[in-house]
Amino acid sequence: MCEGTGDSRVTHPSGLQFAGSESCIACHADISERHAQTPHYLTSQPATAESVKGSFEPSHNLVELNDRLRIVMEKTPEGLYQRGIVSDSTVERRPFDITIGSGRQGQSYLYWHEDALYQLPASYYAPDSVWTNSPGFPADQIVFNRPITSRCLECHSTFFKMGRAVGEIETFDPKQVLLGVDCERCHGPAAKHVTFHGENPDVKDPKYVINPARLTRSQRLDNCALCHSGIRNNFMPSFTYMVGDRLDDFSTPAYEADSAATLDVHGNQFGLLTLSKCFRMTDMDCSTCHDVHSRETGNLQLFSTRCMSCHTPDTEHFCKQETMPGLALENNCIDCHMPKLPSRQVFVQSGNHATRTPFFVRTHLIGTYKAQIEKFLEGISN
Ligand code: HEC
Ligand code: HEC
Ligand code: HEC
Ligand code: HEC
Ligand code: HEC
Ligand code: HEC
Ligand code: HEC
C-alpha cells in the first residue's frame, strides 16, 4: 500500500527502490488477491471510515475517563477526528491519519504533526467492540503528545523513510511511506525485478527478487522474527534490516520483563516455537504451518492437517488422547496443544472500567496443556 504521492520512488537506505505492491498484480494476480485479505496487508492503512473499526454513532463514539474527561470520536466531511474534552471545553482536536492493526484484537490511531507521528488517546478494542483509553495512557489525563517510534512502525508497515530526529522525537518523510506488511517487506525492494520482467517477458527465471524459500533456515526464521520475537534492542536504525540479513547484526532479543504499560510488545511466536520439541527435532520453520499469502485465521482444521504432515495417525508419533464420542482429533489438534493463553504483555483498559482485559494469544510452545484440555473436553461432553 503506497501512501506517498508524486513520481519519486520510495528508496531503501541501501539504495534499492521499492515498486509498491500494485505493480505485482500484473504478473502475480493470484497471490496479490489473496494477500490483500491478510492481517499483514491490513495492519497499517490510511485512516478512513472503512479502515477504522470503532463506531462514530452518538453515545457509542466516546471514552469517558471520569466525570470530567472525555474523548469524542467525530466523523465530518473533512475527515475523522478525536476531540479531548475537559469539563465541557475542548482541549485538543486531532485527525485520524493512520490506522494501526487489522482489527482482529484492536486498533490504535496516529496523526501527523511536523513530520512526526503521534498516537491518539483513544484506541479500539475488538472483543467488546468499544473505544478504550489507548494502552499505557494515563487514566486521569488526556494525552495527545505521545510520539510514535520508528520501531513501532517497523513492525507494522513495510517502510517509512526516516528524517532527522528533533530532540527525542523521530521524524519521517510522509511521501516515502509504504503501509501494510506488504510483498517487499518479505521479498526486498523489487523495482528492478518489475522493470526487468516487464522488459523481458520471455524470461521465466526470476531476477532481482528474494524468495525466502531459497534461503537458509535461520535466514527464513529471522525474516519473521524481526516482528514476531517480541521487543528487541535495536543497535542499527529501524528499517535497515532486509530479508536475507542476519537479524543479530541489527538487534538482540530483550530478555528483561516486558512493560505492560505500552503496546510495544506482543506475542513472541519465534521464541516459544524454538523451545518446542517439534521445532528442535525437525527443520520446520514458520511456513511449515503458515501460508503467509493467505488469510487462514481461525481455520483450525486446516492447521491440523499441517500437524499431521508429521504426526500421521498410523505412527507412534500420533496423539495419545483416548477417543470418545464427539471428539474428532483430526479436526482440531490446536486447542489442546497450542491453546489461547492470556498475554501478560498486552492489556487494555476497556471502556470506562478500570479493569484490565488481557489479549488472548495462541501459544507457540507446542505441548500438552492439561487445564485447557479438560475445558475443551467439558465443552464436548456438554
Ligand atoms: C512483469 C512481470 C512481473 C512483475 C510485475 C513482478 N514479477 Fe515477480 N516474477 C516474475 C517472473 C516471470 C517470475 C519467475 C516465475 C515465477 O516464479 O512466477 C517472478 C518470480 C517472483 C518471485 C519468486 C522468486 C524466486 O526466486 O522464486 C517473487 C518472490 C516475486 N516474483 C515477487 C514479486 C513482487 C514482490 C512483485 C511486485 C513488487 C513482482 N514480483 C512483480 C514476473 C514479475
Ligand atoms: C514487518 C513486520 C512483520 C514481519 C516481517 C512478519 N510479520 Fe507476521 N504479523 C505482523 C503484524 C504486525 C501482525 C498483526 C497484524 C494485524 O492483525 O494487525 C502479524 C500477524 C501475523 C499472523 C497472524 C495473521 C492471521 O492470519 O491471523 C501470522 C500467522 C504471521 N504474522 C506470520 C508471519 C510469518 C510466518 C512471517 C515470516 C514469513 C511474518 N509473519 C513476518 C508483522 C510482521
Ligand atoms: C516487535 C514488533 C512489534 C512492535 C514494536 C509493535 N507491534 Fe503491534 N503487533 C505486533 C504483532 C506481531 C502483532 C500481532 C499480535 C500477535 O498475534 O501476536 C501486533 C498487534 C498489534 C495490534 C492488534 C492488531 C489486531 O488487528 O488485532 C495493535 C493495535 C498494535 N499491535 C499496535 C502497536 C502499536 C501502536 C505499536 C507501537 C507503539 C506496536 N504495536 C508495536 C508486532 C509489533
Ligand atoms: C510476511 C512475508 C511475506 C509477504 C508479505 C509476502 N510474501 Fe511472498 N513469500 C513469502 C515466503 C516465506 C515465501 C516462501 C514460501 C515457502 O517457503 O514456500 C514466499 C514466496 C513467494 C513467491 C514464490 C512462489 C510461491 O508461491 O511460493 C512469490 C511469487 C511471492 N512470494 C510473491 C509475493 C507477492 C506478490 C506478495 C504481495 C502481494 C508477497 N509475496 C507477500 C513471504 C511473504
Ligand atoms: C506447528 C505449526 C505452526 C508453526 C510452525 C508456526 N505456527 Fe503460528 N500459528 C499456528 C496455529 C495453529 C495458529 C492459530 C491459528 C488461529 O487460531 O487462527 C497460529 C497463529 C499464529 C499467529 C497469530 C497469533 C494470535 O493468537 O493472534 C501468529 C502471529 C503466528 N502464528 C506467527 C508464527 C510465526 C512468526 C511462526 C514462526 C516463528 C509460526 N507462527 C510458526 C501454528 C504454527
Ligand atoms: C515438521 C514435523 C512436525 C510438525 C509439522 C509438527 N510436529 Fe509435533 N513433533 C514433531 C517431532 C519430531 C516431535 C518429537 C517426537 C518425539 O518426541 O519422538 C514432536 C512432538 C510433539 C508433541 C509432544 C511434545 C512434547 O514436548 O513432548 C506434541 C504434543 C506435538 N508434537 C504436537 C504437534 C501439533 C499439535 C502440531 C501442529 C500444530 C505439530 N506437532 C506439528 C514433529 C512435528
Ligand atoms: C482433546 C485434546 C486433544 C486433542 C484434540 C489432540 N490431542 Fe494430542 N494429546 C492429548 C493428550 C491428553 C496427550 C497425552 C499426553 C500425555 O499423556 O503425556 C496427547 C499427546 C500427543 C502427542 C505426544 C504423543 C507421545 O508420543 O507422547 C502428540 C504428538 C500429539 N498429541 C499430537 C496431536 C495431534 C497431531 C492432534 C491432532 C490430529 C492432537 N494431538 C489432538 C490431547 C489432545
Can you put this structure into words, describing what you see?
- The protein has 382 residues and is of the alpha+beta class.
- It has a domain at 298-382.
- Helix content is 20%, strand content 24%.
- The chain contains 11 helices and 17 strands.
- It has helices spanning 29-35, 39-42, 150-156, 183-187, 191-199, 217-228, 269-274, 277-280, 300-307, 334-337, 370-381; strands spanning 44-46, 62-64, 69-76, 79-86, 89-95, 98-100, 106-113, 116-119, 122-125, 130-133, 146-147, 157-162, 172-179, 232-234, 251-253, 340-350, 356-362.
- Strands 1, 6, 7, 8, 9, 10, 11, 16 and 17 form a 9-stranded antiparallel sheet that branches. A 4-stranded antiparallel sheet has the order 2-3-4-5, with no helix packed on it.
- Strand 3 and strand 4 form a beta hairpin.
- The longest helix has 12 residues, at 217-228.
- The structure holds heme C (7 copies).
- One heme C (HEC) is lined by residues 224, 228, 267, 269-270, 273, 278, 284, 286, 288-290, 297-298, 303, 306, 334, 338, 361-362, 364.
